[in-house]
Amino acid sequence: MVSIGSVTAPLVLRHPDGREQLIAAGFEHPRGLLYFDLYWHQKTPQRAAHLIEGELRGDGPWRVGNARVRVLGCHNTDPHLQEAFIDWQHYLQTHADDYPPRTQILDIARRLGAC
To answer: Domain residues for 38?
Structure first.
């Protein structure tokens, strides 16, 4: 099984109501899926991290509760998410010193209960 926490490709969360959003990172959690929004590091902890409760299933795409997580499609598969993805990538490239390194992100996720 592919651990969602090991995926470095951009991830898309599809909410039960059909809305889709890019997420910065996702992690297995005993109660489901812990995920961070884009620009999470600029928000308060209460607004940066979210927990979707339910069994995390799949190897990609994944299901948790009534939500789904998948890798962002390429070649205009997800045109409605491309602008957000391009903006996020540009931010990461131009503000590399402002974004936490992967080891720190993993540590934060573990402190929030991620496996």
So the answer is: 4-111
Distance of alpha carbon 113 from alpha carbon 115, whole angstroms: 6
The answer to pTM > 0.70 is: yes
Whole-number CA gyration radius for the chain: 14
Give how many domains the chain has, as a whole number. Answer: 1
pLDDT at 78: 86
Sheet holding 62-64, edge to edge: 49-53, 32-37, 20-29, 11-14, 67-71, 62-64, 56-57
CB under 8 Å to 22, separation ≥6 — which residues? 10, 11, 12, 13, 38, 72, 81, 84, 85, 88
Residue with structure tokens 């789904």?
68
